[in-house]
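Let's do one together. I've listed all components of the complex below, 1206 residues spread over three lines.
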Amino acid sequence: MNSIFTLIPLFPLLGFLVIGLFGKKISKGLVGIIGCGTVFVSLVLSVYAFSGLIGGGEKSGNSITIHLFDWITAGNFSAPFNFLIDPLSCWFLLIITGIGFLIHVYSVGYMHDDPAFDRFFAYLNLFIFFMLLLVLGDSYLTMFVGWEGVGLCSYLLIGFWFKNNDYNKAANKAFIMNRIGDLGFLLGIILIYVTFGSIRYKEVFDVASSFPSSKPVIIAITLLLFVGATGKSAQIPLYTWLPDAMAGPTPVSALIHAATMVTAGIYMIARSNILYTLAPISMDIVAGVGLFTAIFAATIGLFQNDIKKVLAYSTVSQLGYMFLGLGVGAYTGAVFHVTTHAFFKALLFLGAGSVIHAMSGEQDIRKMGGLKKYLPKTYLTFFIATIAISGIPPFAGFFSKDEILGHAYTYNNFFWLMGVLGSVITAFYMFRLFFLTFFGKFRGTEKQEHHLHESPSTMTIPLIILAVLSVVGGFIGIPEVFGGTHWLHEFLSPVFSASDLKTLPKEMSHSKEITLMVVAVLAVCTSIYSAWFYYLKKENIPVADGVAINPVQKTIYHKYYADEFYEAVFTKPLNWLSEKFHKIIELKAIDRAVNFVGESVTWMSGQARLLQTGHIGFYIFAMVVSIILILFFKLL
Amino acid sequence: MNTIQSIHINHYILLSAVLFCIGVMGVLFRRNAIIIFMSVELMLNAVNLLLVAFSSYWNDPAGQVFVFFVMVVAAAEVAVGLAILVMIYRNTGSTDIDVLNKLKN
Amino acid sequence: MKTLYILTALGVIAMLAELFRFKKFLLPIVLIGLMGAIASSVRDWNTNIHYYNYMMTFDNYAILFTIVLCVTAFLWFMMSKDFFGSESSKTDHYALVLFALCGAMLMVSYSNMVMLFLGIEILSIPMYVLAGSNKDSLASNEASLKYFLMGAFATGFLLFGITMIYGATGTFDLRSIGITLKSPELIQVWRGAGGTTLLYSGILMMLIGLCFKISAVPFHFWAPDVYTGAPTPVTAFMATIVKTAAFAAFLRLFITCFSGLGNVWMNTIWVLAGLTILLGNITAVYQTSVKRMLAYSSISHAGYMLLAILAMNNHSVGSVLFYAAAYSVATIGAFTVLSIIEKNFELASVDSFSGLAKKNPLLAFAMTISMLSLAGIPPLAGFFGKYYIFTSALQSGYVWLVLIAVLGSLIGVYYYFRMIIKMFSSGTGEVTNIEISTLQKIVLVITILLSILLGIFPDMVISLL
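Okay, and this is what the predicted structure of the assembly comes out as:
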């Protein structure tokens, strides 16, 4: 009976094959039905698997392993192709198929006029297949297969719409960065195999649990895996591909570059939690990189004027929070944040897509404004998502972020402080985006204004469902301090309990916990107020590109003392920092390093080809010289 | 003890090696394709000589049989090689190997 | 063994076709004959028969490689129907290719150095002619001359090596050589006569001769030029069948005879493999002509396969067999697409593939699968080929070489993906009215399916050995 779950990934694959082979011959409606339908079947099956796991109730350690076939057997090495359904993979199944289904439905409306409608759905289904494979596999090898597969689909979908030459650069960048990450991951897998003699999770973790802490080989493995995670999940230093990946259609950004694929790195580390627990140094590095990315990306987000770029940097920043959570041992918190983030970030992207759709492709927020009355449903849902990401209770983002921050506090007070700073910045730029888009006067052309309309219901219904989830999503993990039982923690405990025993912090008193929450929420509220004050009350619009800080700003500067304060303490240093990060670290150091690798290979290639002179005489001469060298070294 | 075996085997090896090297030098330094063919033939004949010498050294006829195979193959190779040269001579009017170097890099 | 008779008979029939005027039916006859050849090989499974006083051994090793060769040849005949076009030399081409195939069979089933030599020559001499079969094209002439001159030169070294080993051991028989070299007391006998130097230089000379045939750096110089100049179907034949046969011969020789004398040749192959992988991949990056890019990529694949020979453990045979099969299938697919595109372009550059996905999805899909498989992207066959080879090399402790190989395949991914990106980019519209014959369509579908199936069930092939 369990074998029915093998159908979960097979249905999207079937969808891919049918649409890919016959897409041109069948109508758009049928393509849409097949694309959404196959994912829906997977969703139903995932829910069925999930109910089976909950039904297991008391003996909640139960997990299902489905043996499909032996993939490779080479000597004493064997890699059976198995599916593993345990709480962690099942939870990800729900996220992938659930959000995936909503975004498929949305895409039917969004992509309706695109000539390559069928190709888009074929790719999207293929992506879902690989993503499911990634989380369902019971060994690192299967995960790697899915890992490469989603990379390929992401690559194909980024380039789906390219019209200019910048695409080539963006594609190359995404490609090279992911390759560096993949190389780390692959080396990590090889090292795991060499160390443990297996690459199946169960066997690896069984052996590992008897290892002493801080063994060098474990540190090496965990760091290599983390390199893989930084590539796929866009962490420093391999993050710059993600903002560029926004070249793809918006549903792709929502599905792949916000809700699912980029969280593969989190899944991988959460899955390997037993290894990471054995390597505290790696945990520190994961937490540090995550925290730094969270703040770094958030400051860049302050300065962006492209609606999707803001969201992209915000994704990088939120992913940073998840890594912070993993690093401080809050595995449940990280998975919790993956979940809520999937809800509100997918909602934000889809809302942005709805806005772009209405604006006929315009993405610059300086040309928007006052969209509230034209797009009421989009406005409302976007508002909910913005609150959720800012971490205002009782919306979803609050609970998950709070759990991570709470763990961070017990781990290191400074981490908590920086984390709160990050969420203050997040709230500021998100509300800046929100106010500039939906309030004030419309700043676009008349033609655009005339064209403004609410999106069709295939697009707004997914928005509404996601908005509901963004409101109530946090209730699956209400902490004890509010009288909850933290259901998600219970559910995932079979996977994380072994690590929790070792890393879970000393209990915090409830009063202290409440104090921390209140401080965080107050800080965020102040930040929202200042965004409101600066962008809505004073109606500041970010200056056009290339114009230096202008006299208008100077006037405000003199009139309001508060402004001066914010400007000096908050906006200006952050703007400066944001600009410097962007210009110096991002463009100069990271981009240059990546370009250098590519250029040096091309250069070597240009030199190497000169060996091939075309003269037989030279060829024979080179052969004879090599023969003499070989004989000389081997015989004398 | 016959005449072949009366000479020490090392001398045969040396002679063949020298002949072989002369052949290699010919291939290396000449530019005319026909002379290069001849040099390759010289290399093969050096091998034949050595095979016969070893055959007699080990009292084993297989080496001499192999020589016949080598000779047949060499004849076939020359036939094909000359045909290729005729084709090239018709197209370029030259048998210099440096005339043809369009395929490169 | 009947396989060899069938192939020889097919070659003779092809020559008779001109005389008795059944040229039209030649292709079906050849295809049916090849199927018969495959069937008769399968029937010999596990029989291990020796022929002609141990000149040839038709063991499972030979049977599996024969099947790979015959299947590749089957696909090759279907893809290159146009090569046999309407010109008068049609039957000659059939005969030459079939006899070359006989040579390849000898190379996978020999158990005597004489047969190795004959096999290599029977394979090479028709190839010299076929490379120049486009008589009016200077490029084809040049390819033929270069291949011939350098091939004959390398044959000299191979022969010299065989002779020296004969001088040191007194036999051409592989098993006897293997036994002699493994027993220390026998080694004593000829050490007095300067035998060690003789033996060692013999091994190295044979190594050099064989490295030329598989186009390992620095004996690769002929390959890019010959591959570019020869007619595209002939290039496909050289890149698949010739290379597979040469590797089978290489591996059999070194496993049966020289596995105990690793200190003589292993360092050399280590360096050659590293150089081959790096130079092949790096130079391919620069190429704009697809044919030349595939030539350099085929050089780099030879480098990966050298790893398996170097590993010299009980996985070597399986991994080389699987790699050769995966590589041949993908290469045939790529060359089929290339030969179709080349009808519009004299020498198809990477740019002439732009927008292919829109104009002809089947071609683009087949090419994508081939490129992905060659690049070693899971779950396609090429990935497992690399995987088996790398693990078997790791088991023998060649960590650094495997790192070089991984680095090389990362570079490889760059130029393979460049093709894919081009095909899926918005087109310039240069390629017009692509015509694909039914046979070519069948070849494309078969290569796609094989690449995927071999990737999903790699165990089925490996477990045969």
